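chain below, 166 aa
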Amino acid sequence: MIIKGTAFAASALALMLANGCNAAPVDAAKEAAAVRATEVQWNVDTAARDPAKFASHYDADAVDIAPGSDPMHGPAAIQAGMAEAFKDPNFSLTFSADKVEIAADGDMAYSQGHFTETETSPAAQAKLVQSGSYVTVYKRQVDGSWKAVADIASNGPPSGAPKAAN
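prediction:
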């Protein structure tokens, strides 16, 4: 009887583990919409010129790599960097995802898109408008929200420069 009971218990445990590994399917469209909504709010927070709100979109272990700047690690460094950027009266930043992908398990995502940044050129002391591309990797938080863990941007070619062939 012990052998049968042990076999039954082992079979039941294997069945529970197998069912536990089959988490509910991820609604990729819903999660992509949530990432896009996060980016819309991030743009609103950027326009408000509030460095704390801007930095709140980053995970505790995040890195932000912006063109012409050293990488900023963690929300505190990102907040300090944005506080400096917001001192420039010409500073503005807008971005929009062209693509959002959700990992099969629903815990990670990335967005790829384009941005426009305006600032005062240190050399010319004139308004400078730059545009380019970005990739942001997101991690789902315990509360279900999405926060950036890696954010990298690349300036596009200067105005009037020929575009590379694809």
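The chain is about 35% helix and 35% strand. The helical segments are 2-21, 28-47, 51-55, 74-86.
thats it, cya
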